[in-house]
C-alpha cells in the first residue's frame, strides 16, 4: 500500500472496502478494492481468487480494467482497478428528475455500451451475475464501465448453480437456486444450471428502471399446481416453471421499440431471451441512436 496515496473511502462492506487512491509511481488515479481475509467466510475464499483471475483476463473499453492485485501483509488482499471518476450509474440517474432518463440517452449512453461489455464477457464464457446500476461506473467523457466482478463465474470451467446477485435484478432461474454452504455443493445438478441469459435479464431490469424510474414488478405467482409440486431433492429448490411475466407499465414517452426490448430481455424463460449480441441489433438501439443524432 506504500505505493498509493488514499484519498477517500468509497464503499465499506463486511469483508471488503473500496478506496479512491493515486499511484505514487505513475500519478494515475485508481480504485483499491481490499478484502479483509480475517472476515471472509472460509466457504467464499475461493471467490476472491476467481474474481481476480476472471477480471484480469477481460480487456474491453466498457469493462473497468483490473491492473493487478497483491497481498498487503498476511491478512489483506488488494486489487488495483480502473477508477470511475464520475461515480456509478445509480447515483447518476437518481439525481435526474423522476429518477429516469430519456429513452435515447438510456439506449445510447447506457444500454448499448453495457451490452457491448457483456457480449465480450459472454463470448469468453464469463457470466457477471450481478448486473445493477451500482456496478456500472462512469469515467471521463461519461464512458460506461462494468465493474465489480465479485460474483462472476467462468461457465467454461464450472456450472452456475448458486442463488447469486441482488434481489430485484436476479433472473427467475437464479432465484430458484439454493444457497450453498460449500463451493462444490450442487455442481452436479444439471437441473439448476443457468447461463449468461441471467445477465440479459439484469439488463432488461436496468433498462426498465432507467426508462420508468421504477424497479421491475415481481413476477406473477406460479400456477397453483406448480406450487404444490414436491422438490426433486430434499432440501433443494423446487424446479417449477415460472409464472406469467410481470405486468409492465411504461410512461407514454417510452417508445414501443424500447418496450419490446425490455419485454424480450425479461422473459421468464431464459431460452426465450435474446443474447447480448442479438440485443445489440435491436431496433430500439438504432432508433435511440437516430434520436440522439437529432438532439
Automatic annotation (TrEMBL):
Q: Which UniProt keywords apply?
A: ATP-binding, Kinase, Nucleotide-binding, Serine/threonine-protein kinase, Transferase
Entry binding sites for ATP: 33, 134-135, 148
* Domain (Protein kinase) ranges: 4-285
GO terms for MF: ATP binding; protein serine/threonine kinase activity
The family database entries (Pfam families) matched by this protein are listed as: Pkinase
Which InterPro entries does this entry report, sorted A to Z? Aur-like (IPR030616), Kinase-like_dom_sf (IPR011009), Prot_kinase_dom (IPR000719), Ser/Thr_kinase_AS (IPR008271)
Here the cross-link named Glycyl lysine isopeptide (Lys-Gly) (interchain with G-Cter in SUMO2) sits at 132
Please list the residues that make up the active site: 130 (proton acceptor)
Membrane-spanning parts: none
Protein name per UniProt = Protein kinase domain-containing protein
Which species expresses this protein natively?
Chlamydomonas schloesseri
Amino acid at each position: 500500500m506504500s505505493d498509493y496515496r488514499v484519498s477517500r473511502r468509497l464503499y465499506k462492506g463486511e469483508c471488503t472496502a473500496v478506496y479512491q487512491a493515486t499511484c505514487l509511481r505513475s500519478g494515475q488515479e485508481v480504485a483499491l478494492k481490499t478484502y479483509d481475509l480475517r472476515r471472509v467466510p472460509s466457504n467464499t475464499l475461493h471467490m476472491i481468487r476467481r474474481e481476480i483471475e476472471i477480471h484480469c483476463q477481460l480487456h474491453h473499453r466498457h469493462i473497468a480494467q483490473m491492473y493487478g492485485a497483491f497481498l498487503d501483509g498476511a491478512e489483506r488482499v488488494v486489487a488495483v482497478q480502473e477508477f470511475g471518476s464520475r461515480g456509478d450509474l445509480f447515483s447518476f440517474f437518481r439525481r435526474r428528475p423522476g429518477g429516469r432518463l430519456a429513452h435515447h440517452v438510456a439506449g445510447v449512453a447506457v444500454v448499448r455500451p453495457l451490452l457491448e461489455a457483456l457480449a465480450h464477457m459472454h463470448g469468453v464464457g464469463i457470466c457477471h451475475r450481478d448486473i445493477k446500476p451500482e456496478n456500472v461506473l462512469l469515467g471521463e467523457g461519461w464512458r460506461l464501465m462494468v465493474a465489480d466482478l465479485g460474483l462472476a463465474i467462468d461457465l467454461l470451467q464450472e456450472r452456475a448453480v448458486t442463488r447469486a446477485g441482488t434481489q430485484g435484478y436476479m433472473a427467475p432461474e437464479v432465484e430458484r437456486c439454493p444457497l450453498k454452504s460449500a463451493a462444490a455443493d450442487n455442481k452436479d445438478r444439471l437441473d439448476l444450471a443457468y447461463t449468461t441469459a441471467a445477465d440479459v435479464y439484469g439488463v432488461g431490469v436496468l433498462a426498465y428502471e432507467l426508462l420508468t424510474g421504477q424497479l421491475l414488478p415481481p413476477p406473477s405467482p406460479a400456477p397453483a399446481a406448480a406450487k404444490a409440486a414436491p422438490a426433486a431433492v430434499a432440501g433443494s429448490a423446487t424446479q417449477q416453471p415460472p409464472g406469467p411475466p410481470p405486468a409492465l407499465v411504461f410512461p407514454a414517452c417510452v417508445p414501443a421499440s424500447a418496450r419490446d426490448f425490455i419485454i424480450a430481455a425479461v422473459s421468464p424463460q431464459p431460452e426465450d431471451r435474446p443474447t447480448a449480441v442479438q440485443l445489440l441489433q435491436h431496433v430500439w438501439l438504432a432508433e435511440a441512436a437516430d434520436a440522439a443524432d437529432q438532439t
